C-alpha cells in the first residue's frame, strides 16, 4: 500500500488516525500546498476537470464541471459568499466507505476541502456529517483544531492570502440529506426536503448563495490529483473512469469489507478476490452493486467492470460501489420489503408518488411475504414501480427505491409467485433470514 | 396577439397563453380542466402533489412525449401538450389513488362535502375504485381555537396550508411536522391560531382538514345556501365577500374574488365578524311605535306614532359604518345645517385633514401595494386595523427577492425556487409608530416611541436633517430607499387620533413626492364608509358633540335621529342632558347600544347581510352590497326607515317606495358621481341567489311543511331569492362561485379572463372625489407627551358590533400596559407586574387593571395600552400604582366570569339558532311593512 497505489487509503489508521504532523510527514498537505501556490483558482478547476474525477456519491457527475458552474465575482459584498459543503451524511444501506475515510484519515478530508474551497472561491465550508458517526465527529473535531492551529484553516492560510473557515455539522439523521439540496435545507435549519431545481446550488444554494456540495470520497481524491498530477491519476484505470475507487461488500460473504482498487474492477474481483466469495454452503443469487438504491445484478454479471458506464449498461448503477449480496437461502421478497420499508421511512413526504407510493409498496410486499398476497398484487407492484419512476417524482429517492423492487420483480418473479401460491414464504422454513 | 402571449397546442388545439405563466395556469386560463392541488394561483408552484401531469411532446412528429408537471413547466411558443394522453391521465389517476390510500371515507360528515376540491379532482381523474386494502394512517387532531376545525386524517399533504399560513401570511405558530406519510400540519401544541388570516386555511385546504368551526356548528351544504355578493363592513379596505344564509340565519362569509382588492384572501375579522348579525344583541323589535294589529306594525302605525315629527326640525347624526345612501338620505331629511356625519370633535379634525390630502390618483389598491418596492408605515397598525392590507404589504416585501430570481431566469410563479434565491432579501419596509405591530419584524428600520418622537422624526425627515442624533440611521436609510424605489407606498391612518402627529404625517406627502415622483399614498380611515362620509361633508356639517348640544339648546329642534351609531364619544352627562331637555331620541340601528336603551323611538334596521347599499373604501372606491336574505318584519333596511321618516316629516308620500326606486335614489344623491347606480341592464339579470341544486324547492322547508313555499318576491335589485333566475356568473358580483365539475371555490379560474386576472365581467371602478376643502388649523391642545397612552386594539376589538361576538370575547387576553425600559426602570415595574391605572379616556375617567409588558424597542419614556374593549384613539394616564392582591384577584375573577359568560353565550346562540331553523316563517316577505 503506497501513496501511489492506494492514494485514498494508504494513510488510514482506524485505531488511531494520524496527527497532523504524522499526516504531513507522509505527504499530507502537499497537494494543498501545490494547489494554493502553483495554481490560480481557475487553473485548479481546470486541473480537476482534466483529471476526469467523477462524483463518488452515486451520481457520477464530473466534479470539475460542477465546480465550473459557480459564478466568479471579482469582489463580493458583505452579504455575498460562496460555500463548500462536504456531504458526509453516509446513510445508504450497505455503504460505509466514507466512514473509513472520516475515521481513518480525517486530515485528508480537511486538506481536500481547502483545495476545493480555494478552487471555487469559498471562504466558508461545512462538513455535514451523519449523526450516528460519533467517532468520526470526535476525530474530525480534533483534526479541525489541529489544522486551525497549523494555519491550514483560518485566515491567510500558509501565507497565501486565502481564507477558509470550516465547520462540522452533525446531522439529525435523514437519508434524504444525501440529496444535496435537502442537505442544504437541513444545514439552514429547515426541513430536509429537496429543493426545486433550478436554481442549482452552484448558483443559489446555502442561504441563497453559490454552493458546492461534494461527497467525502470525491473530495479525498483532490490532494492526490494535485500532488501526483493528472497523468498518474488517469493511469490507474486506462480503460475506465480515472482514479481509484473504494469498493465494498456486505451480506453473507466470507470477508465483508472495503478495498481501494483502480476504478473499473470487475464485480467478481471484489466479491471473490477481496471478499473471499460466499460463506460456505451459500450460493450467490444476486447483488445490488452500489447500495440499496440500485438494481439487482445476477451471477452472470460478475465480469462487469465496476464503473459508471459498464454497470449502467448491465442494467444497474455503480452508485456508491458497495455490494449488497443476496444468497440463495435468503428470501428476495423479504430483502426487498426490508429495503422498501427503509425508503418509505426515509421519504421526506414532499411529493405524492414517494410519500404514498413507497408505503403502498411496503403494504403489498408485507402481504406477499406473509403469504396473503394475490397475483394481482404483483401487477400492482409493477404499476407502483412505474408510478414512482424518474420524471414523476420530485427527487431521486423514490426511483432509487424502485430500482431494487423492479429488478427483483423481473429477476426473482418466481419467488414472488411462489409466496402467493404456497400462501407462505418458501424460505421461512430454512434458516431465518435477516 | 399581445406581446406577452404565445401559442401552445393542447391536444392539437391552438390556444393563446401568457408567456410569463406556467403551463398549468395557461391551461386553466383557457378553461381546460386539469386537476391540481399544491399549486395556488396566488401562491405559485412547488411541484409537490404531481397531480397536474401532462404529456409534453418535442414537436408535431413526437407521438410518445414525456410526462411533465404542468405547474412547474414554463410555456414556450409552439409547445405541444396533451391532457388526454393515456400516460398522463393514468398517472393523474394514480396520484389520486395514492392519496386515497389514507384519505378517510367520511365525506357524509365532512363540512367540505359538496364543495371539496379533492372530490372534484377525484371525479375529474376518473378514479372510481378503491385499490388499496391496507390500514390507513391516523392522526390526533388539535384544538386550533375558535375559528378553525382540524381533521388531519383527511390530509392529502399538498402543503398549501403551511405555505399560506407561514410563507404567505407570516404566521409563526403553525407549521409542518414529521415526515414520510406521517406529515402533520398544525401547531406545536393545541391552541388558538394567532394569525389574523387563519380562516383562509379553510379555503386554501383542498379538502376538509381545516373547516370553518362556526359554519360547522350551524351547518348547511353549499348547495343549500342562499348567497349574495357583499362587501365587508368591518374596516376600510372593502374586501368583497359572499354571505351565505339558510333558514333565516347567516351561516358564513367566504372570500369573493376581487382582483384589485382582496384577491383570494380575507382576514378573520371579515370572515367571522359577520356573526354579530346572529347575536342576542340584534334589535328585532320597534320601540315607541304603537301597533294597531296583533300581527305587527304597519306603515300607518309608524306614521301615526311619528306624527309629532310633522313639520319639525330635526338633528341627524349619521355614521361611517352605515351606507353612503342612508347617510345621504339622512342629510337630506334634516338639512345641511343640522347634519352630523357621525364624527366626534377629534375625528372631525382628522376627517378635514384627510379630505384635504386625499387624492384618488395618488392612492393605490391592494394589488398595487403588492407591486411596491418600498413601504413606509407611520403610526397605523394595519396588521390589526386593516389586516388584509398588511397581507399585501408582506407580499410587497418579497419583490426584491423576486427581482433577483428574475435576473437568474426564475419566474415569480416558481415559488419555492424564488424563496430559495431570495433568502433573507426583502424590499425595504420602514415603520415609525407609537405601538408595536405584527409587521415590525419585517421592517428594515423601526422606530417605536411617543407621538412627540414621531412628529420630531417626521420633522427631521422633511428637513432631511441627518446630523448626529439617534434617528439619523432611520432617516438616512429611508431617504436612500425612497429615492431609489420604483413604486414606493406610504401608509398612515387615523388609529391613534392624534391630530398633531396626523398633520405632521400628512405634511410628509409633498416632501415624499418631491423625493420620488412615483410615490403613492394610503390613508387608512377607521370604518367601511368613512370615505363616503367625507363626500357628504360641507362647511355646515356638525360634529357629533355640536349636533347633540344644538339639539339640547335649540328650542326649534324637536329631536335627534341617530343612524347606526352608538355615539361613544358622548358622555353619560351628554345623554342625560338630552333626556332632560325633553327632546326625542330616535335610533335606527341593527344592534343595541347604550343609546338604543334610552331612545324614545327605536327602529330596527337590517344589518349588512339583509340590506342594500354602497360603501366607499379607503381608496374612494364605491362598492355595492346586496342582501343574502330578506328582512323579517318589523326590521327594515335603513333607507326604508329614512324614507318613512321623510314621509312623517313632510306628510307627503315619498317617491322612493321600493328597492326598484333605489337606483333612482342613487342618481338623486350622487350628483357629482357619474353613473354609479345599478344599470337597467344589471337589474334585468335577475341572478338567482340560490344554487341550481338547492335541495329541491319543494323539500327545502320539509322540516315544517311538505308544501312548496311561496318564493320570496324578488325586489328588483338584480338578484332573486330563488333558484330560478340568471346564472351566478352573469355578473362580476357573483353570489357564489360554481362551475360544472368545479364545486369548490377553485372554480374561480373559470370566471377570470386569465388566472389571477380580472373577472370576465369586470365592472369599471367607480371612485369618489372629495370636493370638501375645509379651513385647516392646527389644534393646539396636546396631551403631556409622556402621559400619552396610544390605545392598541386587536383586530377583534376594532368595531363596535364585533364586541358582542362570543368567539371574539373568548380571544381576550386581558389589558396590557406596554412600557419602555426607561419607564419600567423609573417606576421599578417588572415584566408581569399588575398595575391599577387611572386613565382619562376620550369621554370618561376610569380605573382599569393592566399587566406590565416591557417593550425594549420603545424609545424614551413611552407606553401603549392594549385593551380588550373597543375604544378609539389615545388616552391619558393620570396615575398608576401597583395593584393589590385583592384587586388582581377581583380582576382575574371578573375576566374568568366574562370568559365563562362568553362560552355560555356561544352555546345559547347556537341553541337559539338551531331552534329557529325549525320555526322559520314559511313566507319570508321582502319589501315594505304593508306587504304582509
From TrEMBL, chain A:
Ranges that cross the membrane: none
Keyword 4Fe-4S listed: yes
Catalytic activity of the protein: a quinone + NADH + 5 H(+)(in) = a quinol + NAD(+) + 4 H(+)(out)
Enzyme class, broadest EC rank: translocase
Cofactor(s), names only, from the UniProt record: FMN; [4Fe-4S] cluster
Domain NADH-ubiquinone oxidoreductase 51kDa subunit iron-sulphur binding: 333-378
Iron listed as a keyword: yes
Record-linked SMART domains: NADH_4Fe-4S
Swiss-Prot/TrEMBL keywords: 4Fe-4S, Flavoprotein, FMN, Iron, Iron-sulfur, Metal-binding, NAD, Quinone, Translocase
InterPro entries xrefs: NADH-UbQ_OxRdtase_51kDa_CS, NADH-UbQ_OxRdtase_suF, Nuo51_FMN-bd, Nuo51_FMN-bd_sf, Nuop51_4Fe4S-bd, Nuop51_4Fe4S-bd_sf
EC assignment: 7.1.1.-
Molecular function terms from GO: 4 iron, 4 sulfur cluster binding; FMN binding; metal ion binding; NAD binding; NADH dehydrogenase (ubiquinone) activity; quinone binding
Alphabetical list of SUPFAM superfamilies matching this protein: Nqo1 FMN-binding domain-like, Nqo1 middle domain-like, Nqo1C-terminal domain-like
One matching Pfam family: Complex1_51K
Annotated family: Belongs to the complex I 51 kDa subunit family.
Function according to Swiss-Prot or TrEMBL: NDH-1 shuttles electrons from NADH, via FMN and iron-sulfur (Fe-S) centers, to quinones in the respiratory chain.
Record protein name field: NADH-quinone oxidoreductase subunit F
From TrEMBL, chain B:
A Gene Ontology term for the protein's cellular component: membrane
Sorted UniProt keywords: 2Fe-2S, 4Fe-4S, Iron, Iron-sulfur, Metal-binding, NAD, Quinone, Translocase, Ubiquinone
One GO term (biological process): ATP synthesis coupled electron transport
The reaction(s) this protein catalyses: a quinone + NADH + 5 H(+)(in) = a quinol + NAD(+) + 4 H(+)(out)
Cofactor: [4Fe-4S] cluster; [2Fe-2S] cluster
Compositionally biased spans, kind Polar residues: 698-716
Domain 2Fe-2S ferredoxin-type: start-end pairs: 4-87
Gene Ontology molecular function: 2 iron, 2 sulfur cluster binding; 4 iron, 4 sulfur cluster binding; metal ion binding; NADH dehydrogenase (ubiquinone) activity; NADH dehydrogenase activity; quinone binding
UniProt domain 4Fe-4S Mo/W bis-MGD-type: residue ranges: 225-281
Pfam families recorded: Fer2_4 (PF13510), Fer4_Nqo3 (PF22117), Molybdop_Fe4S4 (PF04879), Molybdopterin (PF00384), NADH-G_4Fe-4S_3 (PF10588)
InterPro entries: 2Fe-2S_ferredoxin-like_sf, 2Fe-2S_ferredoxin-type, Mopterin_OxRdtase, Mopterin_OxRdtase_4Fe-4S_dom, NADH_UbQ_OxRdtase_75kDa_su_CS, NADH_UbQ_OxRdtase_ferredoxin, NADH_UbQ_OxRdtase_Gsu, NADH_UbQ_OxRdtase_Gsu_4Fe4S-bd
Residue ranges, annotated region (Disordered): 690-718
Quaternary context: Composed of 13 different subunits. Subunits NuoCD, E, F, and G constitute the peripheral sector of the complex.
Family to which this protein belongs: Belongs to the complex I 75 kDa subunit family.
NCBIfam families the UniProt entry points to: NuoG (TIGR01973)
Protein name: NADH-quinone oxidoreductase subunit G
Phylogenetic lineage: Bacteria, Pseudomonadati, Pseudomonadota, Gammaproteobacteria, Alteromonadales
Amino acid at each position: 500500500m503506497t501513496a501511489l497505489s492506494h492514494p485514498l487509503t494508504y494513510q488510514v489508521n482506524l485505531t488511531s488516525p494520524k496527527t497532523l504532523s504524522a499526516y504531513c510527514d507522509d505527504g499530507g498537505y502537499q497537494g494543498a500546498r501545490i494547489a494554493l501556490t502553483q495554481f490560480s483558482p481557475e487553473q485548479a478547476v481546470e486541473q480537476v476537470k482534466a483529471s476526469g474525477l467523477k462524483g463518488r456519491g452515486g451520481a457520477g457527475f464530473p466534479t470539475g464541471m460542477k465546480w465550473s458552474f459557480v459564478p466568479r465575482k471579482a469582489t463580493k459584498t458583505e452579504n455575498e459568499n460562496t460555500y463548500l459543503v462536504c456531504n458526509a451524511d453516509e446513510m445508504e444501506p450497505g455503504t460505509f466507505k466514507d466512514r473509513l475515510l472520516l475515521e481513518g484519515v480525517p486530515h485528508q478530508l480537511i486538506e481536500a476541502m481547502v483545495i476545493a474551497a480555494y478552487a471555487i472561491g469559498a471562504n466558508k465550508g461545512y462538513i455535514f456529517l451523519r449523526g450516528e458517526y460519533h467517532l468520526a465527529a470526535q476525530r474530525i473535531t480534533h483534526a479541525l483544531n489541529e489544522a486551525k492551529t497549523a494555519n491550514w484553516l483560518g485566515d491567510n492560510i500558509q501565507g497565501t492570502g486565502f481564507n477558509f473557515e470550516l465547520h462540522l455539522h452533525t446531522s439529525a439523521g435523514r437519508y434524504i440529506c444525501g440529496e444535496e439540496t435537502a442537505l442544504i435545507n437541513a444545514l439552514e435549519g429547515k426541513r430536509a426536503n429537496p429543493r426545486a431545481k433550478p436554481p442549482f446550488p452552484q448558483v443559489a444554494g446555502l442561504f441563497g448563495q453559490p454552493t458546492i456540495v461534494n461527497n467525502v470520497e470525491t473530495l479525498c481524491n483532490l490532494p492526490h490529483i494535485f500532488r501526483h498530477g493528472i497523468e498518474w491519476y488517469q493511469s490507474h484505470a486506462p480503460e475506465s473512469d480515472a482514479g481509484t475507487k473504494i469498493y465494498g461488500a456486505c451480506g453473507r460473504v466470507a470477508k465483508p469489507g472495503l478495498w481501494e482498487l483502480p476504478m473499473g474492477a470487475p464485480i467478481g474481483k471484489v466479491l471473490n478476490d477481496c471478499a473471499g466469495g460466499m460463506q460456505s454452503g451459500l450460493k450467490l443469487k444476486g447483488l445490488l452493486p452500489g447500495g440499496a438504491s440500485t438494481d439487482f445484478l445476477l451471477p452472470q454479471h460478475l465480469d462487469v467492470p465496476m464503473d459508471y458506464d459498464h454497470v449502467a449498461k448491465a442494467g444497474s448503477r455503480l452508485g456508491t460501489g458497495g455490494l449488497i449480496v443476496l444468497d440463495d437461502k435468503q428470501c428476495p421478497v423479504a430483502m426487498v420489503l426490508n429495503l422498501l420499508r427503509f425508503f418509505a421511512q426515509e421519504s421526506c413526504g414532499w411529493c405524492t408518488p414517494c410519500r404514498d407510493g413507497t408505503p403502498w409498496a411496503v403494504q403489498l410486499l408485507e402481504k406477499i411475504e406473509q403469504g396473503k398476497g394475490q397475483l394481482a398484487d404483483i401487477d400492482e407492484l409493477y404499476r407502483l414501480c412505474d408510478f414512482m419512476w424518474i420524471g414523476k417524482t420530485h427527487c431521486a429517492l423514490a426511483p432509487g427505491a424502485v430500482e431494487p423492487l423492479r429488478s427483483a420483480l423481473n429477476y426473482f418473479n418466481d419467488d414472488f409467485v411462489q409466496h402467493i401460491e404456497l400462501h407462505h414464504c418458501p424460505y421461512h422454513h430454512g434458516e431465518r433470514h435477516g | 396577439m399581445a406581446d406577452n402571449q404565445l401559442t401552445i397546442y393542447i391536444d392539437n388545439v391552438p390556444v393563446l397563453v401568457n408567456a410569463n405563466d406556467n403551463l398549468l395556469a395557461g391551461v386553466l386560463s383557457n378553461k381546460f380542466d386539469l386537476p391540481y392541488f399544491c399549486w395556488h394561483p396566488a401562491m405559485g408552484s412547488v411541484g409537490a402533489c404531481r397531480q397536474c401531469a401532462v404529456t409534453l411532446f418535442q414537436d408535431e412528429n413526437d407521438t410518445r412525449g414525456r410526462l411533465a408537471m404542468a405547474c412547474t413547466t414554463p410555456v414556450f411558443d409552439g409547445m405541444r401538450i396533451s391532457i388526454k394522453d393515456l400516460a398522463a391521465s393514468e398517472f393523474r389517476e394514480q396520484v389520486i389513488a395514492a392519496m386515497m390510500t389514507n384519505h378517510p371515507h367520511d365525506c357524509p360528515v365532512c363540512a367540505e362535502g359538496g364543495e371539496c376540491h379533492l372530490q372534484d379532482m377525484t371525479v375529474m381523474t376518473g378514479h372510481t375504485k378503491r385499490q388499496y386494502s391496507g390500514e390507513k394512517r391516523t392522526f390526533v387532531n388539535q384544538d386550533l381555537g375558535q375559528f378553525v376545525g382540524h381533521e388531519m386524517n383527511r390530509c392529502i399533504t399538498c402543503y398549501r396550508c403551511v405555505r399560506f399560513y407561514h410563507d404567505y401570511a407570516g404566521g409563526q405558530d403553525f407549521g409542518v411536522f414529521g415526515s414520510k406519510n406521517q406529515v402533520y400540519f398544525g401547531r406545536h401544541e393545541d391552541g388558538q391560531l394567532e394569525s389574523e388570516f387563519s380562516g383562509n386555511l379553510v379555503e386554501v385546504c383542498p379538502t376538509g382538514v381545516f373547516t370553518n368551526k362556526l359554519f360547522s356548528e350551524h351547518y348547511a351544504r353549499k348547495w343549500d345556501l342562499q348567497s349574495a355578493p357583499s362587501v365587508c363592513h368591518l374596516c376600510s379596505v372593502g374586501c368583497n365577500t359572499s354571505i351565505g344564509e339558510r333558514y333565516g340565519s347567516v351561516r358564513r362569509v367566504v372570500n369573493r374574488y376581487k382582483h384589485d382588492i382582496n384577491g383570494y384572501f380575507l382576514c378573520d375579522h371579515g370572515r367571522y365578524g359577520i356573526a354579530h348579525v346572529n347575536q342576542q344583541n340584534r334589535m328585532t323589535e320597534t320601540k315607541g311605535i304603537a301597533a294597531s294589529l296583533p300581527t305587527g306594525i304597519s306603515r300607518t302605525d309608524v306614521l301615526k306614532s311619528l306624527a309629532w315629527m310633522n313639520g319639525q326640525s330635526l338633528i341627524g347624526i349619521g355614521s361611517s359604518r352605515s351606507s353612503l345612501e342612508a347617510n345621504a338620505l339622512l342629510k337630506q331629511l334634516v338639512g345641511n345645517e343640522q347634519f352630523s356625519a357621525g364624527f366626534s370633535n377629534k375625528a372631525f379634525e382628522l376627517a378635514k385633514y384627510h379630505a384635504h390630502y386625499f387624492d384618488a390618483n395618488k392612492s393605490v389598491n391592494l394589488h398595487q401595494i403588492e407591486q411596491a418596492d418600498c413601504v413606509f408605515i407611520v403610526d397605523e397598525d394595519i396588521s390589526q386595523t386593516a389586516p388584509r392590507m398588511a397581507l399585501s404589504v408582506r407580499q410587497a416585501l418579497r419583490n426584491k427577492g423576486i427581482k433577483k430570481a428574475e435576473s437568474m431566469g426564475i419566474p415569480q410563479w416558481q415559488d419555492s425556487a424564488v424563496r430559495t434565491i431570495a433568502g433573507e432579501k426583502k424590499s425595504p419596509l420602514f415603520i415609525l409608530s407609537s405601538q408595536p405591530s405584527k409587521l415590525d419584524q419585517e421592517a428594515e428600520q423601526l422606530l417605536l416611541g411617543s407621538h412627540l418622537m414621531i412628529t420630531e422624526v417626521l420633522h427631521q425627515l422633511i428637513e432631511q436633517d441627518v446630523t448626529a442624533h439617534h434617528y439619523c440611521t432611520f432617516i438616512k436609510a429611508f431617504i436612500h430607499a425612497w429615492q431609489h424605489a420604483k413604486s414606493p407606498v406610504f401608509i398612515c391612518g387615523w388609529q391613534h387620533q392624534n391630530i398633531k402627529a396626523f398633520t405632521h404625517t400628512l405634511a410628509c406627502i409633498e416632501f415624499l413626492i418631491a423625493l420620488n415622483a412615483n410615490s403613492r399614498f394610503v390613508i387608512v380611515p377607521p370604518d367601511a364608509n368613512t370615505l363616503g362620509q367625507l363626500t357628504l361633508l360641507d362647511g355646515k356639517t356638525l360634529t357629533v358633540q355640536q349636533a347633540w348640544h344644538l339639539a339640547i339648546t335649540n328650542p326649534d329642534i324637536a329631536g335627534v335621529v341617530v343612524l347606526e351609531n352608538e355615539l361613544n364619544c358622548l358622555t353619560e352627562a351628554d345623554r342625560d342632558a338630552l333626556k332632560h331637555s325633553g327632546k326625542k331620541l330616535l335610533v335606527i340601528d341593527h344592534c343595541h347600544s347604550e343609546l338604543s336603551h334610552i331612545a324614545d323611538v327605536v327602529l330596527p334596521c337590517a344589518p349588512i347581510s339583509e340590506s342594500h347599499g354602497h360603501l366607499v373604501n379607503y381608496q374612494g372606491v364605491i362598492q355595492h352590497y346586496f342582501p343574502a336574505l330578506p328582512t323579517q318584519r318589523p326590521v327594515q333596511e335603513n333607507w326604508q326607515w329614512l324614507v318613512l321618516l321623510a314621509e312623517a316629516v313632510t306628510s307627503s308620500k315619498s317617491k322612493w317606495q321600493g328597492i326598484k326606486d333605489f337606483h333612482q335614489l342613487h342618481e338623486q344623491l350622487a350628483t357629482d358621481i357619474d353613473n354609479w347606480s345599478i344599470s337597467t341592464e344589471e337589474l334585468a339579470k335577475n341572478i338567482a341567489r340560490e344554487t341550481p341544486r338547492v335541495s329541491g324547492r319543494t323539500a327545502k322547508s320539509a322540516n315544517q311543511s311538505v308544501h312548496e313555499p311561496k318564493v320570496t318576491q324578488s325586489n328588483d335589485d338584480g338578484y332573486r331569492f330563488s333558484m330560478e333566475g340568471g346564472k351566478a356568473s352573469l355578473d362580476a358580483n357573483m353570489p357564489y362561485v360554481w362551475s360544472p365539475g368545479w364545486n369548490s371555490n377553485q372554480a374561480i379560474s373559470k370566471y377570470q379572463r386569465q388566472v389571477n386576472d380580472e373577472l370576465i365581467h369586470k365592472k369599471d371602478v367607480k371612485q369618489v372625489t372629495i370636493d370638501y376643502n375645509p379651513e385647516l388649523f392646527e389644534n393646539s391642545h396636546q396631551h403631556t407627551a409622556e402621559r400619552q397612552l396610544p390605545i392598541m386594539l386587536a383586530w377583534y376589538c376594532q368595531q363596535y358590533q364585533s364586541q358582542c361576538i362570543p368567539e371574539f370575547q373568548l380571544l381576550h387576553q386581558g389589558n396590557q400596559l406596554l412600557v419602555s425600559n426607561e419607564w419600567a426602570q423609573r417606576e421599578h415595574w417588572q415584566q408581569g407586574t399588575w398595575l391599577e391605572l387611572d386613565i382619562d379616556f376620550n369621554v370618561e375617567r376610569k380605573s382599569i387593571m393592566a399587566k406590565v409588558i416591557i417593550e425594549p424597542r420603545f424609545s424614551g419614556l413611552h407606553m401603549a395600552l392594549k385593551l380588550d374593549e373597543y375604544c378609539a384613539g389615545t388616552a391619558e394616564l393620570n396615575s398608576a400604582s401597583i395593584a393589590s392582591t385583592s384587586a388582581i384577584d377581583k380582576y382575574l375573577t371578573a375576566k374568568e366570569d366574562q370568559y365563562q359568560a362568553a362560552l355560555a353565550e356561544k352555546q345559547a346562540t347556537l341553541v337559539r339558532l338551531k331552534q329557529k331553523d325549525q320555526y322559520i316563517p314559511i313566507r319570508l316577505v321582502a319589501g315594505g311593512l304593508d306587504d304582509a
